[in-house]
Design brief:
105 residues, two-stranded parallel sheet, 40% strand, 7 strands, alpha+beta, 25% helix
């Protein structure tokens, strides 16, 4: 139950939000009190602040999202991680497109 509940908490913070990478080498993400601006070359997008999640990743690919979720889940379970031998997280991007992150001891 603990694992399920922690995973549900993490995914709920991402679901139905615009996910923006803050470590992308060419996308600049700027946060203001009411809005977030993402800039790539000559293009610019402005989103309401409440609709966005700024993630410390280089890109929002399924693979990097799986890693982000997995690492956050391990952190949330930190008092119990000694008992975890292997963890695998899969993020389904669309039909047949899955990003996988796996960590073993």
């Amino acid at each position: 139950l603990l694992l399920r509940d922690k995973l549900r908490e993490i995914t709920a913070t991402l679901d139905h939000y615009v996910l923006l990478p803050t470590e992308h080498p060419r996308i600049r993400v700027e946060e203001a009190s009411q809005e977030v601006t993402a800039t790539f070359e000559e293009r610019r997008w402005i989103f309401p602040r409440g609709d966005c999640r700024l993630l410390p990743v280089a890109n929002t690919t399924a693979e990097l999202l799986a890693r982000f979720i997995g690492e956050n889940l391990l952190s949330a379970l930190s008092p119990h991680t000694a008992r975890i031998i292997c963890m695998q997280i899969e993020v389904d991007e669309c039909d047949g497109q899955i990003g996988v992150w796996r960590q073993s001891r």
